[in-house]
Amino acid sequence: MKSCKLSRESQDSKLQVAAMVDVVFLLLVFFVLTIKPVDLPVGLSVSRPGMSDQVCETPIELLRINVHGTGFFLNGAKVNLDRIDRILSHVAEFTTRASVIITCSSDSKHSDLIKVLDLCSKTGMTNIALMTAR
């Protein structure tokens, strides 16, 4: 009879963990929903640069020159050799490492390609790639 009484006491003395976990989760949800988020940038003093009258010109990093039988195209716009020369000279003022991709179609003349390569050489462009268009 004594052994039955001990087992009953041990059952009564156990804590119900499931109920405690439920209460902890309810408290967590309560605090998460009622907390007011702090806006950190409002409390920080940040010095920002003022407006400038100078125009910032970023150098062109990629030029696409298409050589077709009908003429020359620079980044999709139809241009002549003089315009290509001026643009390459302008880009070369900033950097001669800009990439120049020259695409030739099957109906273009070899002399047109040589003219574009001569302009690249004249302006000092060194990063040149040649492609063929179908």
Q: How does this structure look, described?
A:
The protein is built from five helices and five strands. Helix content is 46%, strand content 19%. The chain has 134 residues and is an alpha/beta fold. The protein has a five-stranded mixed beta sheet. It has helices spanning 2-13, 17-34, 40-43, 81-94, 110-123; strands at residues 62-68, 71-74, 77-79, 99-104, 127-132. The mean pLDDT is 81. It folds into two domains: 2-34; 62-132, Nucleotidyltransferase, domain 5 (2-Layer Sandwich), CATH 3.30.420.270.
Features:
46% helix, 5 helices, elongated, Nucleotidyltransferase, domain 5, 19% strand, alpha/beta, single chain, 5 strands, 134 residues, five-stranded mixed sheet
Identify low-pLDDT runs: none
Helix content: 40-55%
Biggest sheet statistics? 5 strands, mixed
Query: Count of helices?
Result: 5
- End-to-end CA span: 99 Å
The total strand number stands at 5
Using only CA atoms, what is the Rg? Answer: 37 Å
Could you spell the SSE succession in H and E letters? HHHEEEHEHE
Give the CATH architecture of the largest domain.
Answer: 2-Layer Sandwich
On the 0-100 scale, what is the average pLDDT?
81
Beta percentage is 15-25%
Order of strands across the biggest sheet?
3-2-1-4-5
Count of the separate structural domains: 2
